[in-house]
């Protein structure tokens, strides 16, 4: 795209500000900016801006999930049978795991990718090392190296890869680890204008963890899975140090019952806990965000006093390869977040703000659930599988995660 073409395109979409500083750039910066402009999907950005305030859920019909399988209530016989089926699938190489590590981790405020954050367990370990330990334990148990796909972002990919290289992949098999980058979308100011991070650089940010489906297809990960005959991918949040992604019981149950999607849940702590809960939206499996569930619905209880919408989603989901491909070929909706960012203003000053000043658009992994015919919800115990690191202090912080982790390892072994 040349300069004149860019001017025309930007005029058409009311985004001429992107060339405000063009004349100050050197030749390679100019070329790069034109290329960045040619890669923007302006129609998409416009429709995202126009639909900012549309609340879709209100028009929809929300039902609770009735049939979650509760691990604690399963018979020992069923547990053993499914675990055996799952174990042979794992030994057969049918399971791979994926860590979603492309997030910004703004609440934690750690410099660098979240997976490089060192947790003060004994001995202290980075999150990535803790996750690697689980795969090393699986190797001991099943005699196979489980393939590990790690989703990064443009912003943190190089640092993530370097961290693994510098640490010799924590002695895991290097050939079984693959990094892939998720997509990005430009940020908008509150008038719908795309903003510049630098005079020659459009401000883009990762497109949310729901970008994983498109990224798995674009980066040929699905193809890689096919070549290796991997049938299931357990996708998990990078920041849960008790995550159990090599779960023979759950894989066995999925296989036996022919599910393409299984999702782990923990019971909601209270009606007001800020977590997404499983439900059905217009009959389709879904997760309803805490901000979208009305308080009355959140408080509703069953006869036994437990919450009707109780199964919380915590980011540990197993997809069949076919389902991943199906979702990857569809467009998921984007959700808007209002974020504080520093960008180049019209008068070339850097605009910082103590208030949110930009719109960021993110897809969510659980919106992909709507494309599954059915979902196996598997309720596990919080203290066994869920120790998230989200905030610097207080709830879901390194301190709470450390305590949960130390308690768990002193009492149990996964799987
Ligand atoms: P969160 O929504 O908790 O976001 O991500 P975050 O980036 O870790 O933290 P905050 O909200 O900025 O404080 C849940 C999981 O999804 C991943 C995260 O890395 C985490 O494992 N994620 C999130 C991505 O991989 N990409 C994204 O664009 C967003």
List the main descriptive attributes of the protein structure presented here.
415 residues; Spore Coat Polysaccharide Biosynthesis Protein SpsA, Chain A; 2 domains; 8-stranded mixed β-sheet; 3-stranded antiparallel β-sheet; binds uridine 5'-triphosphate
Describe the structure.
It is a single chain. The protein is of the alpha/beta class and 415 residues long. It has helices spanning 3-12, 27-38, 42-50, 76-91, 127-142, 157-166, 212-218, 221-227, 248-257, 295-299, 321-328, 382-385, 398-411; strands at residues 62-63, 69-70, 95-100, 118-119, 125-126, 148-152, 177-181, 184-186, 188-189, 196-198, 201-202, 204-206, 232-237, 261-267, 277-281, 284-288, 311-320, 335-339, 343-344, 350-351, 358-362, 376-379. Helix 4 (76-91) packs across helix 9. It is globular and about 70 Å long. The mean pLDDT is 94. The structure holds uridine 5'-triphosphate.
């Amino acid at each position: 795209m040349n300069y004149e073409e860019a001017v025309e395109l930007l005029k058409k979409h009311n985004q001429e500000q992107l060339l405000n500083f063009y004349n100050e750039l050197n030749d390679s910066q100019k070329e790069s900016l034109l290329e960045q402009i040619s890669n923007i999907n302006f129609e998409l950005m416009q429709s995202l801006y126009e639909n900012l305030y549309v609340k879709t859920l209100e028009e929809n019909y929300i039902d609770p999930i009735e049939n979650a399988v509760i691990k604690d209530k399963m018979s020992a016989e069923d547990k053993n049978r499914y675990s055996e089926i799952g174990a042979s699938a794992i030994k057969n190489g049918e399971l791979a795991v994926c860590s979603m590590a492309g997030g910004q981790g703004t609440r934690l405020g750690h410099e660098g990718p979240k997976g490089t954050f060192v947790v003060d367990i004994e001995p202290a370990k980075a999150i990535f090392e803790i996750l690697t330990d689980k795969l090393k334990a699986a190797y001991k148990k099943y005699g196979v190296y489980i393939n590990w796909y790690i989703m990064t972002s443009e912003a943190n990919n190089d640092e993530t890869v370097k961290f693994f290289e510098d640490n010799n992949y924590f002695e895991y098999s290097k050939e079984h680890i693959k990094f892939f980058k998720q997509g990005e979308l430009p940020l908008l100011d509150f008038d719908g204008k795309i903003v510049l991070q630098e005079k020659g650089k459009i401000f883009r940010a990762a497109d949310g963890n729901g970008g994983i489906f498109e990224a798995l297809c674009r980066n040929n990960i699905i193809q890689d899975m096919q070549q290796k005959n991997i049938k299931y991918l357990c996708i998990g949040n990078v920041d849960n140090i008790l995550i159990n992604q090599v779960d023979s019981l759950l894989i066995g149950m999925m296989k036996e019952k022919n599910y393409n999607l299984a999702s782990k849940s923990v019971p909601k702590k209270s009606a007001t806990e800020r977590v997404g809960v499983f439900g059905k939206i217009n009959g389709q499996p879904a997760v309803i965000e805490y901000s979208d569930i009305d308080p009355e619905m959140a408080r509703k209880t069953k006869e036994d006093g437990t919450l009707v919408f109780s199964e919380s989603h915590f980011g540990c989901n197993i997809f069949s390869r076919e389902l991943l491909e199906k979702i990857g070929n569809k467009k998921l909706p984007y959700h808007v977040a209002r974020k504080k960012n520093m960008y180049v203003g019209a008068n070339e000053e850097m605009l910082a703000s103590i208030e949110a000043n930009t719109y960021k658009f993110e897809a969510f992994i659980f919106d992909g659930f709507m494309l599954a015919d059915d979902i196996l919800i598997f309720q596990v115990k919080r203290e066994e599988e869920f120790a998230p690191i989200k905030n610097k202090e207080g709830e879901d912080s390194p301190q709470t995660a450390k305590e949960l982790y130390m308690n768990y390892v002193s009492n149990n072994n996964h799987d």
